[in-house]
Amino acid sequence: QVQLVESGGGLVQPGGSLRLSCVASGTIFNIGAMGWFRQAPGKQREFVATCTSWNRTNYAVPVKGRFTIFRDSAKNTVYLQMNSLKPEDAAVYYCYAKLVVAGGNWSPEDYWGQGTEVTVSS
Asked: In b/e form, how buried is each residue of 41-72, taking b as 16+ CB within 10 angstroms?
């Protein structure tokens, strides 16, 4: 059984900052990429950022230069530092991980968290 649990969402004023965290737990053999997607009301889920197991990062254009993704592989944790937040960043943020479950089919699979809500409003 594998779980991804996000935390750190909340209400912030425009221009403010938040740091999201996501911890993967369970019978994990190996984690490859970890990252974040987001979904605003009435919109499709969209890619935000990803970080490989070699700490290679990639960002969506709207967040590049404002958001930073980093991970602590020893803790199976990925973070998203969000600065200079804008109202259009408001969404539910979902963590994902491509990982191999110990004792499973030994193939990488995508796992998702339940989401943490970010509200940007004055």
From this structure: eeeeeeebbbbeeeeeeebeeebeeebbbebe
If phi > 0 it is left, if psi is from -120 to 50 it is alpha, else beta; for residue 105 that is: alpha
**pLDDT at position 105 over 90:** no
Per the CB < 8 A criterion, the answer to whether 100 and 93 are in contact is no
Question: 51-103, pLDDT tens digit by residue?
Answer: 999 999 999 999 999 999 999 999 999 999 999 999 999 999 999 999 999 88
Percentage of residues in the chain having pLDDT higher than 90: 95
Could you give the C-alpha distances from 102 to 19, 64, 99, in angstroms and in order? 30, 35, 10
Tell me if 50 sits within 8 A of 60, measured CB to CB. Answer: no
